[in-house]
Design brief:
Blueprint (H helix, E strand, L loop, with lengths): L3 H28 L2 H30 L2 H29 L1
Helix pairs in contact: 1-2, 1-3, 2-3
Length: about 100
């Protein structure tokens, strides 16, 4: 069972990692040919969508009181897992 604080810290860590990956992809995109830039832009857009969803879920979790966390925890953890998996699939598809 994950505490709210653990969930928040784990999600913050994931978002930081995704920010780094997106930044690396932007650097590659800027150095790529025009055709490749379009593919990088697509990957960045998809990954950014998942990052935004994670940021929204993080904001929700941070607003949740410790008392309310138990009823919210299962759906928050499932959503975070889905977001993480979506980001990973988007990343793998273009890497």
């Amino acid at each position: 069972m994950t505490s709210r604080d653990e969930f928040v810290e784990n999600l913050k860590t994931s978002i930081d990692e995704w920010n780094t990956q997106i930044g690396e992809m932007e650097t590659k995109m800027n150095a790529a040919s025009a055709d490749a830039q379009a593919k990088y832009a697509e990957q960045i857009a998809e990954a950014s969508k998942f990052r935004a969803e994670a940021q929204a879920k993080l904001a929700e979790a941070m607003k949740t009181s410790q008392d309310a966390w138990e009823s919210y925890r299962t759906s928050a953890e499932a959503a975070a897992k889905d977001i993480s998996e979506g980001f990973r699939k988007a990343w793998d598809r273009f890497s």
